[in-house]
Design a protein that fits this description.
Length: about 325
Amino acid sequence: MLDANRGRLWGRPDGRGLFAYPAQSNFSGVQHPLSWVELAHRHGYDVLLDAAAYAPTNRLDLRVVQPEFVCLSWYKLFGYPTGVGALLARRDALARLRRPWFAGRTIRAVSVQGDWHRSMDDESAFEDGTLNFLSIPDVEFGLRWLDAIDVDLVHTRVGLLTGWLLDRLTTLRHRTGRPLVQVYGPATGADRGGTVTFNLRHPDGSLVDERLVAREAAAAGFSLRTGCFCNPGAGEGAFGISPDSLRRRLLARIDTIDEYLGALRLPTGGAVRVSFGLASNATDAERFLAFVEATYLNRGATADSPLPPRLRC
Ligand SMILES: Cc1ncc(COP(=O)(O)O)c(C=O)c1O
């Protein structure tokens, strides 16, 4: 575990472990220092750097930052909703990994009766099944395209759009004087990427349900991600859920996310996320701000039509 304030790592005192962290949070957009890689190395850890959210709008120079493993989703670099990703690994780190099982295409030889197998010597020992070879060539075209645009330019533009939206959102006030928007994560453009996560509040301070925002935004032509973004840990931090509030006996009786939120008396378990990328422009940001102002500023809590249950986190 890393204590960023004291710059210390705790963990297995004896041997090596793996320190995994995201260069940029998919929840709050905060960027964690890349210097943690070197810090973890000094304490004997291998490092897995999750660059999935970071790489689309930031240059990552692996001559300077040298984690053992880097994972990233190529399709996110090109603005696609899904596609192939990669786990980059240093050869020496890969050679230290032992796989306790195997799957098709990862072995050189096998005997079922003899309960024996020999793994491939290279990365293919970890590549189960048939690779998505129809999509992999797209990565080369995508990288060439991104190189021609220049990722540093994308970074600058996304930084400007993010800073602008944060400035505007955080200054919106209802007539009651209460803020309309509560941002999770850095409220300025510093040390962050183009992910802006927030909840909206009514003039009395109560939360606007994120499912309602999703519905109304979709009707206005905005595609927003809402919920906890597959990052329950960051969500629990943002909503102030402490280990004390999570009694195991209580959790044992709960089956759905809505029951869980009810048991913790949380008004919402999720938030709204706006992400800027290489395709975003100033009109997108201005239109979204205008939608938020027109729809939610000074709008009191109403008995809205029933919202769908939350089916997954
Ligand atoms: C930091 C981070 N890690 C991992 C992922 C998961 O990526 P994928 O769905 O391509 O596996 C995401 C996706 O948003 C992410 O932002």
